[in-house]
Amino acid sequence: MEKLVIEGGNRLTGEVSVSGSKNASLPIMAATILAEGGYTLENVPDLRDVRTLCKLLNLLNIETDLRNNQLVLRNSGGDAFEAPYELVKTMRASILVLGPLLAKRKRARVSLPGGCAIGERPVDQHIKALKLMGAKIEIEHGYIVAECEKLIGTDIYFDLVTVTGTENIMMAAAGAKGVTTIYNAAIEPEVVDLGNFLMKMGVKIEGLGTKTVKIYGSDNLIATDYKVMNDRIEAATLICAAAITKGDILLKGVPIDCLTTVIDKFLEIGINIEVLGENVIRVSADKRLDAADITTQVYPGFPTDLQAQFMALMTVAKGVSVITENIFENRFMHVAELKRMGADIRLKDRSAIVRGVERLSGAHVMASDLRASASLVLAGLIADGETHVHRIYHLDRGYEKFDEKLNKLGAKIKRVENGE
Ligand code: UD1
Q1: Which residues span the domain enclosing 80?
Q2: What was the pLDDT predicted at 184?
Q3: 370: domain CATH number?
Q4: Which one of 204, 227, 250 terminates a domain?
Q5: Percent of the chain at pLDDT above 90?
Q6: Residues 148-200 pLDDT 10s
Q7: Cα(136) to centroid of ligand 1, in Å?
Q8: Checking DSSP bridges between strand 344-348 and strand 351-355, what pairing results, if any?
Q9: Do 199 and 251 fall into the same domain?
Q10: Pocket test for ligand 1, best of 53, 116, 121 (most atoms within 8 A of CB)
Q11: CA-to-CA distance for 104 and 201, rounded, in angstroms?
Q12: Phi, psi at 259, each rounded to 5°
């Protein structure tokens, strides 16, 4: 297994570009199940999760070729319908094949994703909605076993806002008979990106990006090409990296419109952000950041996928910050690790109370999930001495060449095999 060894104390300067969005790429890739033919997707990040979904699509008779951020897919049809445990256990987003498989191939057998480091994460809303659309679904031997004659469009009311749930049902509805209306739909930009792709495939969608989305099913979907949006979470993580080192960087390819809430919060704590042109910003920080509170919420609120990175900033900020996690029940695994580096954090219910300290000190720390690993890297950038971040396969699931990008900006990070 690999680890990162970070020598702290190097200020970041220079230019860096944001990669394509992981969370937009995955559902768009899954949507290629809906129509046979060839697809070229541009701006797909070369990440472990993307490679995992490629493997899964290969099992479903869809060839994939990912080179230089261009993903070429060829769906040759057939009736394969299984997403095995070995793949799903490494990536929960594999559940995204359930809706399109049912819509197109009328059958699906998808391993039930288990809990994960950030909580139980059930998929009951996905299953409820597909049942309402006429699917027969049983849980057998740890698998969701589903079949239908033809999915039928209907009204779906989600009990809570679910991102992949909304995406799964949008894809199911695209290949269903009649109209599906999703109430309490997720409005995250990645949901909108999937919707735009489906529309390019020939699906009529109304209300995309609002809480009520209407999808008109079609039997005439066509394979198409598409450019995936840039990654808003990576962009914000790079802003954190510049700010925590009191650096000064030029960040290109920032989906600024999707980051309004986050940028407001960054300005509040004293990060300088200057918009220089379309999707180009200059980020700098010249003094110790101020503390501020955040509460994670569904879009356009502060994203849960940025909570751990924001906490890293707060560990060395001036004052006390209260960080409340509203989306996942157990997303504070990074707290114990940050404390090993000298952070002063107390957990109370769903909040972390972070008292900013003058400095962190390098230590051996363990990444527990994707965003937690990014927060440990951020802390390592300014800690005294060396920080060893273990289990960075989590980081590689979702950040493209993160250590390389930071090194180009002046960080000192080595990737080493530690034989674990
Ligand atoms: C997606 C993102 C993830 C992000 C999350 C919240 C992808 C591939 N992943 O995950 O990075 O952190 O949105 O923005 O896009 N829930 C249920 N029942 C369900 C579905 C969800 O109870 O059927 C709960 C979850 O346990 C969680 C909340 O709803 O507490 C939100 O989860 P959801 O939006 O579904 O997250 P994901 O789509 O898995």
Answers
A1: 22-227
A2: 98
A3: 3.65.10.10
A4: 227
A5: 95
A6: 999 999 999 999 999 999 999 999 999 999 999 999 999 999 999 999 999 99
A7: 23
A8: antiparallel
A9: no
A10: 121
A11: 14
A12: -120, 20
Active site residue 54: no
> How many angstroms does the Cα of residue 121 sit away from the middle of ligand 1?
7
| Tokens coding 270 | 């004293």
Domain limit, last residue, from 227, 261, 278? 227
Residues with Cβ within 6 A of ligand 1? 23, 26, 93, 119, 121-126, 160, 162-165, 190, 304-305, 327-328
CA distances from 42 to 36, 120, 224, 230 (A): 19, 33, 12, 11
CB neighbour class for 358 (10 Å; exposed up to 12, middle 13-18, buried from 19): exposed
Q: Are residues 247 and 362 in the same domain?
A: yes
Within this chain, do residues 69 and 102 fall inside the same structural domain, yes or no?
A: yes
Whether the pTM exceeds 0.70: the reply is yes
- Counting the structural domains of the chain, the total is 2
37 Cα: distance to centroid of ligand 1 (angstroms): 30
